Amino acid sequence: MTRTETIDTETYARSALSKTTLLKRGFVLLALVAVVLYAAIVGYMYAKQDTLLYKPSGELPDPNTVGMADVEVVSLTMSDGVLLTAWSAPPATEGAPTVLFFHGQSGNLGDRADRMREILNSGYGLLAPSYRGFPGSEGEPSEMALISDGVEMFDRLDVEGTDVVLHGQSLGTGIAAAVAEQRPNAQLLVLEAPFTATVDVASERYPLLPVSLLMKDQFATRDVIDEITVPTLIFHGTDDETIPLHHGEALAAMSGGSAKLHVVPEGTHNDLWSHGLWDEVQATLGQ
Fold first, then answer.
1. Whose C-alpha in 34, 92, 106, 231 is 20 to 30 A from the C-alpha of 41?
2. E strands in the chain
């Protein structure tokens, strides 16, 4: 081999080595960028998790403006001094129970006026709290605080001698179930579009994130459902895209058969009442 050929070969080898080095460095840089972005996403999700779980909005309306003239707006001071607003009405029918109603994760009580109207039209009483941090109420929402408030409200109704029906809607199912587990003397537990746990729903939505390690308020109804002795009705729609049907099915299975599952064909997350939910509740209470 001539000297020229030797030099060309060495130059080519150095060039190939340089390209390989650049490619490796490029891959390392991309990996570092991916790690930084992933860490940023994880950090954001951790920092913002409360705003993703609790979504209060709007102003709490006067009940009169949403067809609830027979409802009184009451202020309830919790044991830690936090002041909550609730809508309250006594049973119109003698001996009828009061429904302790726990709403979903967003909006305010006024968004559930149609449900409450049906409850009152049936002669039942109502106590519907606006959660901590939601329109009309002080404080900040958390799993521990909302469940504690729910138990305290149940006890206030119980002391008055009224039978209590616990009704949870979506996020409220986690509160209602926890109260039922602690207060087995409730007359009935109604779970409207429930989850096995909020952390399970989040894990399904964000499969690439370590949600179970990040999420503080997990509302694990699956962990208490088999301890609940209160008669339980579960309602879930086949077309629920917010909390898929398999959550309701799993809870019914975990209850050991003590919870009755009502699968609503074509039902979505927010229209179960228009598919006869309240008729089924009344039929159960009338048995």
1. 106
2. 55-56, 72-77, 83-89, 98-102, 106-107, 125-129, 164-169, 188-192, 232-237, 259-264
Q: What is the pLDDT of residues 106-143, one digit of tens each?
A: 999 999 999 999 999 999 999 999 999 999 999 999 99
Q: What is the pLDDT of residue 41?
A: 67
Q: Which pLDDT belongs to residue 214?
A: 87
Cα gap 166→176, rounded to integer Å: 6
Q: Are 249 and 236 in contact (CB under 8 A)?
A: yes
How long a stretch of residues is the chain?
Answer: 287
Element (H, E) at 279: helix 277-285
Q: How far apart are CA 173 and CA 195, in angstroms?
A: 8
Collapsed DSSP state (helix, strand, coil) of residue 263? strand
Q: pLDDT per residue over 234-246, tens digit each? A: 999 999 999 999 9
Q: Which residues are within 8 A (CB) of 218 and not within 5 positions of it... i.e. 6 or more apart? A: 143, 197, 198, 199, 212
Residue found by looking up tokens 């409207």 in the block = 192
Q: Which two tokens stand for residue 153?
A: 């409200």
Instruction: State the first-to-last Cα distance of the chain, in angstroms, to the nearest integer.
Output: 102
Task: Provide the strand spans (E) within 35-71.
Answer: 55-56
Residue with tokens 């009309």: 136
Q: CA-CA distances (angstroms) from residue 125 to 89, 98, 100, 286?
A: 5, 4, 9, 16
